[in-house]
């Protein structure tokens, strides 16, 4: 897709979707750039009308990451989006009318080497399948395979598939079943997951379970929140599974042994290290000397709190003991100094 190779052993890419009116070029470009800065690698845009289609060339020339046009029902919008230069289409070929229309869209997509994502969704599943199987993994998968078969009939194989559901178990079961049946790249997501609390948990469980199984090629964390938060969340999921390098901050939950203001310190460390996001570093912020030094030693850098003071560690060794008020500055200064010199970690 565009410059990205998706599937197989390629990296798992982070995707999000703009919340702007696609017809509003300035707003949409602004949001895509915010997403790019946050680490988004593919952005999807709703293309519901001609106005949105007309905006696409102007949007495409101002952004870097591949853009996917999300089309429902209207094959003319699909054709216009392809001609405008989008890098991917999200469309279900069974929903765009007769064979002739599908043939037209598919032949243009093939000529331009633009992949198509088939996206089946538990909430909008074709009645034919829910009548036959109930709202189940079989129903979602059979529906997706029906769309896939249409593309295959026209000799099109640059296909990616999603079988999203808002119910986490259903979503996980559906992808597991689908992955046994096809070898196409899969796009993972828990749909209508909720706000940036419930949605994060549901997405973490659903996407995370599948990634641990080795299933999934692109991911989207759907949140009723800014899409930038979706990107941060997706990145965190990938990092926590060791699928992506980057800064990881581990911090203890605090307990009766904690004698420093650790919650405040952990938040400040996170903020102070924002510019280190791309560094493959583990930084531990621990409350005490019981578990603290061990965890801090295993990290690249760390602090372990004491009574009104704390130890600073680097690469397994105690660097110094400092007053509580100096812990943040000393830790950050140390990381900046060391990593500034050793930028090979980046
Ligand atoms: Fe408590 Fe120490 Fe564990 Fe933190 S590291 S939770 S302060 S025992």
Largest sheet: 8 strands, parallel
Radius of gyration: 23 Å
Task: State the secondary-structure class.
Answer: alpha/beta
Q: What strand line-up does the widest sheet have? A: 6-5-4-3-2-1-8-7
- Give the strand content: 15-25%
Averaged pLDDT: 93
> What's the total number of strands?
13
Low-pLDDT parts are 342-346
Shape: elongated
Number of helices: 12
Helix percent band? 40-55%
Alpha-carbon distance between the termini? 26 Å
Order of helices and strands: EHEHEHEHEHHEHEHEHEHEHEEEH
Q: Tell me which ligands are bound.
A: iron/sulfur cluster
Provide the fold topology.
Layout: E1 13-17, H1 25-38, E2 42-46, H2 50-60, E3 67-70, H3 75-84, E4 88-90, H4 99-112, E5 116-121, H5 127-133, H6 137-153, E6 159-164, H7 168-181, E7 187-188, H8 198-212, E8 218-219, H9 227-240, E9 248-251, H10 262-272, E10 282-286, H11 292-298, E11 301-305, E12 309-314, E13 317-323, H12 327-341
Parallel strand pairs: 1-2, 1-8, 2-3, 3-4, 4-5, 5-6, 7-8, 9-10, 10-11
Antiparallel strand pairs: 11-12, 12-13
